[in-house]
Amino acid sequence: MSTDIEQEKRALRAELRERRQLLSDAQRAAAASGIHDQLDALVDAHSAASISCFLSATTEPGTRAFVTAAVQRGIRVLLPVTRADGLLDWAVADEEGDVAEGLFGLPEPTGEVLGPIAVNDVDLMIIPAAAVDLTGMRLGWGRGYFDKTIGSMEKCPPVYAVIYDSEVLDSLPREVHDQPVTGVVTPTRTLTLSPARH
């Protein structure tokens, strides 16, 4: 494992995290509204009856209104629950949307927890990212949860990462374990980047 690549990723994550923290409340609200519209259209385009998504933290593009609305539309939404062993459990989102602080201080659902293989049944995965490049390579936040999940799935559905417009980059450093995504959803557009992945 190249330490140069690790250092490059670390520096890039720090820069992206700082950029996200500088956004105003108004910018965040506008982004969340755009994300909601884009994700609704993506779900419809895939005729998805069951999806996985995530509960956005303060600095992430907002997904919570979308999750609530999807549940109200009758879509089954699985939300990730982090485990100490590096795997993800899943919980079914409900209309109450009760949230607790997870392992890394991130928001997680409080409902009944299902095991890691529960996600194998979804039609579409919507995951967090720090950035994605034009080949579909995703830079996560360094813990590897989603790379492990996607890499272990027998039949992986389309995977879209939710990021801000400025986080679609020309290229990203990559390591062997890094998993590409099908595309990205930003507040203004949805891009399919590596359709051949599935």
UniProtKB/TrEMBL annotation:
Its cofactor is Mg(2+). GO terms for molecular function: 5-formyltetrahydrofolate cyclo-ligase activity. The keyword Transmembrane helix does not apply. InterPro entries: FTHF_cligase, FTHF_cligase-like_sf, NagB/RpiA_transferase-like. It is an enzyme of class 6 (ligase). PANTHER family: 5-FORMYLTETRAHYDROFOLATE CYCLO-LIGASE, ATPASE INHIBITOR/5-FORMYLTETRAHYDROFOLATE CYCLO-LIGASE. Belongs to the 5-formyltetrahydrofolate cyclo-ligase family. This is 5-formyltetrahydrofolate cyclo-ligase. It comes from Microbacterium murale.
